[in-house]
Amino acid sequence: MTIPTRADDPDGADFRAMSGVRNAVYEEISGHTDHSMSAESLLPHYRDDPYEKRMTWLVLDDDEPVGRIGVDLPIERESTLAFVLIELRRAAWGRGIGGAALEMIERVAREHGRQTLQTWVEHPEAPGGRLHPPTGFGSVPAEGHAARFLARRGFALEQVERCSALDLRGSWDRVRTLRDDALEAAVGYRVVSWTLPTPSEFTAGYAWMKSRMVTDAPSAALEYDDEVWDAARVATHDERYLEAGQTMLVTAAQHIATGELCAFNELVIAADRSEATHQEDTLVLSRHRGHRLGMLVKCEGLLAWRAIAPDSPRVLTYNAEENRPMLDINEAIGFAPIAYEGAWKKVLR
Hints:
It is built from 10 helices and 13 strands. With 349 residues, it is of the alpha+beta class. The strands form 2 sheets. An 11-stranded mixed beta sheet has the order 1-2-3-4-13-7-12-11-10-9-8, sandwiched between helices. The protein has a two-stranded antiparallel sheet with strand order 5-6.
């Protein structure tokens, strides 16, 4: 696909079609529209990126968009990874399109020296047996469409992630109480926060925490390259969200004695602030755990979010099923599971 300069440009028709079919696929799978994004909001996330090569194909049945295919290649030194997706409308299932797409993906991966394919797929509930990852936490329906497709083509289920939602229209008393309790436990720390762009005094600390997401968060047998984050990479990250018209609030814990940022939480919403909120990265650096900093940054962020997006109905977040410390925090706040996603991996011969 050609990535246009603007979504409404004459050469942006395919991109607009890809955005529409993306949203339609997600709605068919999840039953809601909280994952939908306009073409204008999606476009900045497809710009040329010095840290990742992103390739996207639109699947057409005659002139009707029925799916999309994606291959993301990290540009870390000597990377062997490819993050892939095959997303088709239900009406296009069972016609060999997915198999043909995977053959193309594998060919492209090999051409770029990549041998490990990884993908994340939401698995709606289905009758029959269950597939369990080696972590021993969570499961997905073995007879679901996506599970059958991936398992038959050499992918292994490595991890299950829980999608949880918090209703933002109820009482906030519980969040305030949990925040107050966490403040008492977080002796020697204070809370700082900002909306993008990241202030210069926090850039280095934020960059370091972002780089630790691939090392400190539970990842089972999934593979990630070590990522180097610096001021330039933070600026690229911020620019994407700002150009998309999105608002991101970063709430962080700072160690008072050293000034080090040691925990953070991100909340994001589209230009339309009546849409669902998405909680993106959350992390407590390993050497600062045990002070209830995860609870602190999550609750402080949610309380501040009321003023930013008072009409947003709920927050969605994802966590590995084995990440019990973070799930404990979410459950205490009031998050409830609404879906499960499988993380799948295939190593090419």
